[in-house]
Write the structure tokens for this entry.
Amino acid sequence: MFKDLYDSLSRLFSWRWHAAGGEITAIDTSGIDAHGSDELNIYLGVAYKFLVDNDGPYTGETYWSMLPKRAFALRDTLRIGQAVVVRYRADDPSVNKLDRRCRREL
């Protein structure tokens, strides 16, 4: 339980973690109800893998919630095999996330 809490809290400072080059391995979209509102939001899921020196591969995934038009446009922009920057915790690379610039650049 404390490890999960530590992992979650440490993600707040992920911009300070080490960076590694990775690549997208899967892209998925799924619909969700936006808490009873009339607007339907879409989850855009991106899975990726990366190496730390010669160790790995490590994997991760991220989900973004957005309006359908934006989600489908972004899904069409992303490609499996596309290079991305991954931030990982030095003491445990299995705790990782896409660099925040990734979404802005898309």
